[in-house]
Amino acid sequence: MLYALEARHAPVVSLWVWYHVGGRNEVPGTTGMSHFLEHMLFKGTPKHPKGDLDRLLARYGAQWNAFTSEDVTCYFETVPKARYQTALELESDRMRNALISIEETEAERTVIVSEREGYENDPSFLLGEELQAIAFSRHTYGQGVIGSKDEIKLMTRDGLYAHYRRFYAPNNAYVVVTGDDEPERLIEHATEAFGPLEPSRDLGEPPKAPEPEQHGERRITVHRAGGTLPIVMLAFRAPRATDPRAAALSALAVALAGTSTGSDGASGRSSRLHRALVETGLAADVDATFQLMKDPFLFLTDATLRPGIKHADVERVLLEELAKLSTDLVAEDEFARVRRQLLASTAFNTDTITWRAYRCGQLLSTGAATSIGDWYAKLAAVTREEIRDAAAALFVERSRNVGWFVPEGDAS
Fold this sequence. Notes:
By secondary structure, the protein is α+β, with helices and mostly antiparallel strands. 44% of the residues lie in helices and 18% in strands. It is globular.
């Protein structure tokens, strides 16, 4: 699929290639393969040997990167308008012609193990990974993205190459472009670059392990040595991005913890969890997240405790705040503030050409909306009643997963 959006902010073009492969497409024994493969796509092709892509893009002052999630693997370049076709040539080349050698696989394995060990130094990552694992007993979302250290060490070049040949193809990708040109011309050039490429003849089957209904609360405690602060994390089973409640759940997350828009944190300071936990001295930080995902995922809330505060006390306050939203309509003035923050953050995050392309790709790849305008309209149409009803359906004991991070030596 090709999608283009005209954006005359500056004489640049942002090209994003979204492959429909991520953690959800892996089976036990191969977890982390999509992320490992993402690293390998920077190792060159016969036409562009290792380092050539970096040199070319750096010469043009480009911005480029990649990421892997549970649902997708994505690559992007934001380049001067005159270099759009160069970016297209580079991405279409590595879509089917990447060099994945044994030597580079072994060298990159060390890098990814080190990356994994770095994540393990973050208590939020450790707790989130464990909580996600207990929240999904069947669906591959429970495996996460980066994979276990043991499976990273067992990854083979042949396995990576087979994964690449199966999933990296024009019939398994969304190409999203925003930039300083007419959409028709942007699509025309992209069609010329990707159209001739060989499609994959075997994309495999989509994940066939729908997560069964959860019938009661699940709990986990993670212990780790060090001077880090304790954490309480709650995860509730939440619907997929195509669900009619997705926009209301996005608003619900803003009501609980605000948005990341702006550097002064004013949005977060007006939120319910900040007032209930940070202003009262129980927590140093709070957050709430609803992600747009292809399959039903999780609505997360978490709090980093201040020294000497007990986990049980913070968990109780978290649950009280969730219960209030489940039974009472938010006040008119609070709703107006939440709505304003939600719409402002949506506009802010699509203000640059790069992030506008990202947002388009995210909405299209998950099915949340057909365009940024479509998603904005869905957010603008959310009502107070829909926020309350979404909270009431979500925040129930039977679908609750609770995680505590306890630094070793802390008995709270």
